[in-house]
Specification:
Elements: H1 4-29, H2 35-62, H3 69-72, H4 88-113, H5 121-138, H6 140-150
Helix pairs in contact: 1-2, 1-4, 2-5, 4-5
């Protein structure tokens, strides 16, 4: 595998985006948001945690342990939710934006590992999961639930 350095850099990039997404989700869940949206975001957080761990395992298999300085260094381009002032739509928009970044980075990684001995099925599953979560957060039904909460309606 002659491009292992590029693959490792791409894995680190995705790992950092998951870390950013976890921080973004944490900030969003601190807001006053409808129960359905909070449930969706908390599930999203758990999935991101799992996928981040699997990327760490891949990194470990490719290079070295996660204590490496290159993966611990903060990402200068990280997009984070710092102040959404209770605006659930803004928070969800930023979360969806990071999801889309992660999906794009998976596409790059899949192109890099093509023809190598790396099993791409896990990477493809990760990408599909991120696409599914992005779609769920982007659908109008999530917005509808937040409008119901604003009008005092609560359905379980």
């Amino acid at each position: 595998m002659e491009n292992v350095r590029a693959i490792v850099k791409q894995v680190v990039k995705i790992w950092r985006l998951y870390k950013t997404q976890q921080l973004t989700l944490t900030v969003a869940m601190r807001q006053e948001i409808p129960f359905r949206l909070r449930k969706l975001l908390s599930r999203d957080y758990m999935i991101c945690s799992l996928l981040k761990k699997e990327m760490a395992d891949l990194y470990d298999a490719l290079k070295c342990c996660m204590r490496d300085a290159c993966i611990q260094r903060p990402d200068a381009n990280a997009v984070m939710v710092m102040n959404v002032d209770g605006n659930a739509d803004l928070a969800v928009g930023k979360i969806v934006s990071v999801h889309r970044q992660i999906i794009a980075e998976y596409e790059t990684l899949l192109a890099l590992v093509e023809g190598s001995n790396i099993n791409t099925s896990i990477l493809q599953q990760h990408r599909k999961q991120m696409e599914k979560m992005t779609q769920e957060l982007s659908t109008p039904s999530g917005r509808l639930q937040s409008q119901e909460m604003d009008h005092g309606h609560f359905a379980m």
